Batch of 2 targets.
Target 1
Amino acid sequence: MIEGIITKGVGGTYTVRREAGDRILCQIRGGIRKSGVVPAVGDKVKVSESGDPDIPYVIDDILPRKNFLIRPSVANIDCLILTFAVCDPQPDLTLTDKLLVICANLNISTVLLFTKCDLDPEQADTLSDIYTSAGFKVYRSSKGKLFSSRELAEVAPSGIVAFAGPSGVGKSTVCNNILENDIMQTGDVSDRLKRGKHTTRHVELFDTKTGFITDTPGFTSLSLFDVGTDYKDVVKGYPEIMRSAGKCRFDDCRHLSETGCAVLEDLEEGKIDRGRYLRYREEYEYLYNNRNNYKRRIRPV
Ligand SMILES: Nc1nc2c(ncn2[C@@H]2O[C@H](COP(=O)(O)OP(=O)(O)OP(=O)(O)O)[C@@H](O)[C@H]2O)c(=O)[nH]1
Ligand SMILES: [Mg+2]
Ligand SMILES: [Zn+2]
């Protein structure tokens, strides 16, 4: 059996890149389908010949996943680059922070990429400061100085790197820059709605000098409740709150209004960004108040 990695899946037919670098077309063995596991881009698989000249190989086995993100659907991510524009479209920091919570809980390492910094350098500085002091690695991209292969190699020296974020922020533009090829179609931001037009529709892994990148379709909203995040796990997306929490008087402090809460003290002293804190509190309270409705969850990520 030959091992490879799924780089693309369309209508039940999968493209697998073999170790040698060539790509083959595969169908999947019925048994896998019955087990309920849906193969995803990024899956490491074992394949053998199928005997069918149209789709000459068959996926016999999917190796255990290191992690799996449902939306975008990618397995075995080594680093997720959360991509947001500083404007056009305006950044939705609630969405940014929710994605950070999800990735932290799935053990997916993340960095932030703020794009279109040429359009509003001041906003770029403000956002970079907020997230750098929270404890994240932040990169910037602008017209004329797009996020590059050199920076990509710094983010992840090998493995799978996925770009995720809202529509129209420039994910495909950055991927094209890294691949030195206009392989991904890009689209304007709508003048009327001030939103992207969902130009990218599928997920595909491309070879880079260091591993793989994948562009992903943009998305607009996300519910931590739907993906099954526990209220106790919200804090994992907030390294700055976890840092201060070590000094809280009570071990089970929720950092809402408890006496001796070091997070609230650090917030008053300006050591924690108020916007970030308020988003933590809102999400914590929402999930806490709905904690008994978890059966309604769609499915855990
Ligand atoms: N000014 C400026 N415009 C940019 C920058 N990066 C991308 N754009 C423009 O933003 C628009 C959207 O870019 P795309 O790369 O298609 O965005 P996307 O994130 O892939 O969008 P979806 O595929 O819809 O999710 C295009 O018109 C790009 O030319 C940048 O750094 N500065
Ligand atoms: Mg795109
Ligand atoms: Zn506290």
Target 2
Amino acid sequence: MTPSLQSHHRAYGYVMLGQSATPATGQSTAGQTMIFMIMALIILAVVIVWIFDVHTVLHLKARTQNAGDAAALAAARWQGISLNLIGDLNILQALALSRGDTAAAAQITDVQARLCFVGPLVGLLASQQAAKNNRVYANPDYTANLIAHADLVLSYYAADTNRFPEPYAGAWSEYSGMLANIAGQGVAAGPDNTWYYTDSTDSHWLLSRNFYEAVAGLDWCWFYWHGLTTLQSYADYQYWPGLPAADPANTHNCEVFGLGLLPFTTILPGGAETVARMNRLRAERALSTDTISNEVAGITNTWYGYAWTSWSALAPANDFPILPLQVKPEYDYAGADAVIRVEAQPDSRLPAAFPSIQPFLIRSSPSATRLTQSAAAGGTVTWTAAAKPFGYLTNDTIRVRPDAYAIVLPAFQNVRLIPVDAATGSNIGAYDLDWRRHTQDHLPTYMQSGQAGLEADCWYCQQLQTWEDPAFRQQGIDWLNDTNHPCIPPAGGPGEHGGTRRGH
Ligand SMILES: [Zn+2]
């Protein structure tokens, strides 16, 4: 045993036993040793907490990422299944029309209208299960949010069927019931690209999360691409155009994981060529041995078709993460995809004795800036992921987009994760509850009274406060006045991994 260790023991004994009768000769040494011991204990504690905390945070990240990815894939899979079913029903409808059975054709249209809701909601249910299988459990705030929306559908939507026309008889009570049923089992995976019928399609900066992130990240290129004039001419809050009123809604698609379809009454688009394609799919999928007659091409009927766009056209400016050239033509479509948000709390096993160390550790973990903000809420880890059904039709020799024939045909074979920024409605943040509070509660006040209406503890309000500072904006103007600024379209391709911490 070394002399120093002996003195450790002696000092320890003195401290523990509270001995006051310390021999005068050993007092100084014992005091120094005691300070050393306390230092060593603190260092040891910091190391233990550090290892434990880093382990916990890393483990938690893996768990939330797996849960988010699995939930997004489950939702997108059901979008693909629903689209294939609606496509099969278009073929069966053509067969009915071939036989002159218009009553059956009308019934099929009704089933298709229901599938536009039931299919995505089964996807919502499946995504909850996928998240829970990965040990991310029901989030009380998410659950409350979905319950509140189910109530809104039953009251607000159902009460004003002029503004929110039912896609089929009894739709709103049925839809509300399904939402409430899913909420009743607890919402773990928030459907983040949910598009409420009351949401606006306006691209007002104050309603774009990208604006706040550009302010927070000093991303002057965002301003360069989205409106340099606003950066240069902004004086105060009265500069903003008024917040847009909600758009009259297209109520044919489910708000959650909508399929982007529309019923349209017309003769068959594509005529005889579409009939030939349907006959081939009918045989391949063993739907019937009867042949669809070419006369169907001339019959007026209600078909379910696509209201999709090209994937590369999603880009609002030059900040789209997928370059058009990198998307194969048959996959260059956008209209049905799923964005999921999951949150998980670290297990609260950290010793309460280290309140000053804990936030430091969480802040120092390698992740996006917004994790810092959530440290106050106990180190919540958030993950958003996006997935999309993939498929194509073959036009004899070449592959074409699933919507190449305008009407829905069974075309989907696969589902894959995509970058969140390349998903439709990725900027909505329907389950980013801080964001919804900001847009619904804080912005109207700000538009009335400027900075006085901002909330100090809201991250988005904090960015607005920064934006209001003329010196902040001048910094960007100066930066962009340098003609060597690097605001060129970003390179990048379709990532293998679809998730992100963006906007947390
Ligand atoms: Zn706010």
